[in-house]
Design a protein that fits this description.
two-stranded antiparallel sheet; Cytochrome Bc1 Complex, Chain D, domain 2; 38% helix; mainly alpha; 141 residues
Amino acid sequence: MAKPCTAIISILITVGCLSTGFTFSKGSLADNTFALNSPALKTTTATGVSADKQEVLSLIREKGCGSCHQIPAMSSANGRVGPSLAHYSKRAYIAGVMPNTKENLIAWLLNPKAVTADTAMPNSQLTIAQAKQITTFLLRD
């Protein structure tokens, strides 16, 4: 049986994700076996940076993440509102309220206020594919 706090967080995530158009299916967050079908960071360009990494950095730049967060892979991302995203995979919790897992990070990126209403993190209007892409990037190390 799930702990009451875990059950409440699961409900908040579900409601928040559904409100963004995210739907659950068998083998998803609904039964804790959500699978990410994101490609591995692979193709290398002339600059020595993988094409997928360049794509995710471009997305992160486009969404303005660096205005609030420090992102080591981006010299222009030096925000001080949110936490640094350095070594993000090593963190135990997301926003101090839920375990740092792929499923939870995707839900957080899709609708942070559904997880914790008092967060300063805005809803960046990410698609599910974009949230998966950023999740793969943040949890890579």
